From TrEMBL:
Coiled coil: none annotated. It comes from Dactylosporangium aurantiacum. Keywords: NADP, Oxidoreductase. The keyword Zinc does not apply. This is Zinc-binding dehydrogenase. One of its GO terms (molecular function) is NADPH binding. The keyword RNA-binding does not apply. Gene3D superfamilies: Medium-chain alcohol dehydrogenases, catalytic domain (3.90.180.10). InterPro entries: ADH-like_C (IPR013149), ADH-like_N (IPR013154), ER (IPR020843), GroES-like_sf (IPR011032), NAD(P)-bd_dom_sf (IPR036291). Residues 10-320 form the Enoyl reductase (ER) domain.
Length: 322
């Protein structure tokens, strides 16, 4: 089979399309014929050397969407549509940047959809992260206000769509005025230009501060996001678009505003119930929900895709097609 191989941490030139043996599923694992694979910041971090426990060379990719090719001893059937994500994909074992991938049955989610594969490939990890952040991370409820920091990322766009579907009022940020319309297109009520200090803008709209905030940029903007949140409100740290995630010399009383809660979210396939995946695929198909634009790349263009991923040149989800 053809696969993208990452020889080691470094520039995009370390990504090469190679021929490797098609993997065989050991007991309890399933082989999937990959139809589309999403690109994620996690793979960028792996390429830049920020991921722990990775043994190189490695096929990257923490998610894939396709059809069951060899179900092994599982309850799945050949040809069945499935998605898979996380669980060590692309780090401790080869991931989704390939024509075939082999993963544990426990992280395979069946679904049925007539959406095209590029659209399907954009959904699983993005939906899992957005859904988990809003539910487990924030316990967001209808009628509440939500601030999304890093709103034109794929997770930011998905979180806005899901929050609006839930009945929340959404404020979301972008550093580029040209991208404000992209935020409005997914249901953001108050698109904001991020100048590095948005708390004042937020409190001009919501004087007491928002009920919940989703931090996708990282530690450089986290103090300002906390400052935009009300007493007894919650901030969920999920993303690291800035590639910065450590708080140096953390002093909680000085760092956290009085009464503001800070949580984090980093989920697995088990955090995305099959019924939730199916529900949103159905709603995307009918046009009731959009998770934002999708940009596709052939496997041979993986270096261009990673360049766009690294520099944030696209709004929405990047998807590779084997």
């Amino acid at each position: 089979m053809r696969a993208v191989m990452l020889s080691g941490p470094g520039p995009v030139e370390n990504l090469q399309v190679v021929e490797v043996p098609t993997p065989e599923p050991p007991p309890g694992w399933v082989r999937i014929r990959v139809k589309a694979f999403g690109l994620n910041r996690s793979e960028l971090h792996t390429r830049l050397g920020y991921a722990e426990g990775v043994v190189f060379p490695r096929v990257p990719g923490i998610e894939a969407t396709g059809v069951v090719d060899d179900p092994g001893t599982s309850d799945l059937t050949p040809g069945q549509q499935v998605a898979t994500m996380m669980g060590g994909m692309g780090r401790t074992f080869d991931g989704g940047y390939a024509e075939y991938t082999v993963v544990p049955r426990a992280q395979v989610i069946p679904f049925a959809s007539e959406l095209p594969w590029p659209a399907l490939g954009a959904v699983p990890e993005t939906l899992q992260t957005a859904y988990g952040s809003l539910t487990t991370g924030l316990d967001l409820r209808a009628g509440q206000t939500l601030l999304i920091r890093g709103g034109t990322s794929s997770v930011g766009l998905a979180a806005a769509a899901l929050a609006r579907d839930l009945g929340a009022t959404v404020l979301s940020t972008t550093r580029s005025p040209a991208r404000l319309e992209a935020l409005a297109a997914v249901g953001v009520t108050h698109p904001l230009v991020d100048d590095g200090a948005v708390a004042a803008q937020v409190r001009a709209l919501v004087p007491d501060g928002v009920d919940a905030a989703l931090e996708l940029v990282g530690t450089p903007t986290l103090p300002d996001t906390l400052a935009a949140t009300r007493v007894h409100g919650t901030v969920c740290f999920t993303g690291m678009l800035s590639n910065e995630w450590l708080v140096r010399d953390f002093y909680p009383i000085g760092y956290l505003p009085t009464g503001v809660r800070l949580t984090a979210y980093g989920g697995e396939a088990s955090d995305l119930p099959a019924a939730v995946l199916q529900r949103y695929l159905d709603r995307i198909a009918t046009g009731e929900v959009t998770l934002g634009p999708v940009h596709t790349y052939a496997m041979d263009d993986i270096r261009a895709a990673h360049t766009d991923l690294e520099h944030g040149t696209k709004v929405g989800k990047l998807v590779g097609l084997p």
